[in-house]
């Protein structure tokens, strides 16, 4: 089964969010009939956080397995803040009542909920960037759900959501 990484550089401005959503829309419409709205909203939150709290370059990356997108992430040029992001993606970090009505701070909660907890963040090997991402719905075709093979992207196996 073929595996590859779909990489799209994003503009170093707020336009990164719209561009990321447009690319995701194109890829999901071609590869899966999954829930586009939830994926777009989760991606908009991640891309918006990158623009708001990090620095360029911004890159959208989607792991494709057998022609189907299974993982979507935004890479930014600021490796700092990883612990805060991981806390925000953690189920133990559920907001209290006051936080639910705050002006901001619920983006990572949305990502976690929209991806059924199949999300994460990690530092890139270079040490100069981080990635924040989530699992995409996996298409079920005539041969059943796409299974992630071991190897290059095998670490994603525990993130894949089989529909």
TrEMBL record:
One protein family per Pfam: HATPase_c_2
InterPro entries: Anti-sigma-factor_SerPK, HATPase_C_sf, HATPase_dom
GO molecular function (one): protein serine/threonine kinase activity
Alphabetized UniProt keyword annotations: Kinase, Serine/threonine-protein kinase, Transferase
Domain of life: Bacteria
Ranges for domain Histidine kinase/HSP90-like ATPase: 11-121
Signal peptide positions on this chain: none
Protein name as catalogued: Histidine kinase/HSP90-like ATPase domain-containing protein
UniProt organism field: Spongiactinospora rosea
């Amino acid at each position: 089964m073929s595996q590859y990484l779909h990489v799209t550089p994003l503009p170093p401005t707020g336009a990164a969010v719209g561009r990321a959503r447009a690319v995701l829309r194109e890829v999901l419409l071609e590869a899966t009939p999954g829930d586009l709205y939830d994926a777009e909203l989760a991606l908009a939150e991640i891309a918006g956080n990158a623009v708001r709290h990090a620095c360029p370059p911004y890159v959208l990356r989607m792991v494709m397995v057998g022609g189907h997108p299974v993982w979507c992430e935004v890479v930014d040029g600021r490796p700092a803040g990883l612990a805060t992001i991981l806390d925000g993606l953690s189920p133990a970090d559920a907001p209290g009542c006051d936080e639910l009505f705050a002006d901001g701070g619920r983006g990572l909660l949305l990502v976690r909920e929209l991806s059924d907890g199949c999300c994460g963040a990690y530092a890139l090997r270079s040490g100069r960037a981080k990635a924040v991402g989530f699992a995409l719905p996996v298409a079920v075709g005539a041969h059943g759900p796409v299974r992630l093979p071991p190897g290059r992207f095998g670490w994603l196996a525990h993130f894949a959501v089989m529909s």
